[in-house]
């Protein structure tokens, strides 16, 4: 399992590069332009995949050489192996425009990554796990926690499940659900800033994209994204200032 986790961590940037090269079909940027929504982020925001993939490889190497053999780490390996594999699979099926399958895959990957992030960042007696466990997995889970709703919106537009001329009435509930998930998991992870960071980054990307968008309701969507980003920062700071500082194990 140790080697499998590392190989799957290494496979994600490779699959991402192949996907963005157009090998599997239209790139993510081309698909986003084809099916514009009020919750998609500016293109630069997706550059966060670079640090996420790099830190996932750090996790893969860390767990490979770690002397720890606890049940907790074995569970983390299982969840991360599934989450990493599903992340690579999503990149392929999304570029193939198999949108329903992509939607199922990204939600499954989110569940695995959230479980791994919780196990890695959970503290006991104010002693936290090594940074190479909780930082990479929290960052990955935080980004996917927002990305799932971008994916939902694109499926709605692609199949015209709801009105596409005026998307604000159904986009606002998506923002509401995103807020529930992000704030709920931030509380569950005890204010883990590395979970909040990619979500805030993505929401600011949504603000930048929508404040310039000609779509109806885009300005409101931009302001909602900005407000949610500020709220996440505030909650993370509240936890940071009120909770005892965890100590790394000796």
From TrEMBL:
Transmembrane segments: 37-63, 75-93, 99-120, 141-162, 168-187, 194-212, 218-241
Keywords, sorted A to Z: Membrane, Transmembrane, Transmembrane helix
PANTHER family: SI:CH211-161H7.5-RELATED, XK-RELATED PROTEIN
Name recorded for this polypeptide: Transporter
Top-rank lineage group of the source organism: Bacteria
């Amino acid at each position: 399992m140790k080697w499998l986790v590392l190989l799957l961590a290494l496979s994600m940037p490779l699959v991402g590069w192949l996907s963005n090269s157009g090998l599997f079909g239209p790139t993510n940027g081309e698909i986003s332009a084809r099916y514009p929504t009020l919750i998609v982020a500016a293109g630069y925001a997706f550059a966060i995949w670079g640090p996420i993939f790099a830190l996932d490889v750090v996790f893969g190497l860390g767990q490979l050489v770690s002397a720890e053999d606890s049940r907790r780490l074995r569970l983390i390996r299982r969840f991360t192996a599934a989450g990493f594999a599903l992340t690579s699979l999503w990149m392929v099926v999304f570029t193939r425009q198999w949108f329903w399958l992509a939607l199922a895959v990204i939600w499954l990957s989110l569940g695995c990554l959230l479980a791994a992030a919780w196990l890695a960042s959970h503290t006991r007696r104010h002693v936290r796990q090594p940074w190479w466990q909780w930082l990479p997995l929290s960052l990955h889970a935080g980004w996917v926690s927002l990305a799932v709703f971008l994916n939902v919106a694109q499926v709605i537009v692609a199949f015209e499940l709801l009105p596409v001329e005026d998307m604000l009435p159904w986009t606002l509930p998506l923002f509401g659900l995103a807020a529930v998930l992000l704030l709920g998991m931030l509380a569950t992870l005890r204010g883990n800033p590395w979970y909040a960071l990619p979500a805030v980054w993505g929401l600011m990307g949504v603000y930048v994209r929508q404040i310039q968008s000609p779509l109806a309701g885009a300005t409101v969507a931009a302001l909602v994204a900005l407000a949610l980003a500020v709220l996440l920062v505030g909650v993370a700071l509240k936890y940071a200032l009120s909770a005892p500082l965890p100590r790394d194990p000796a």
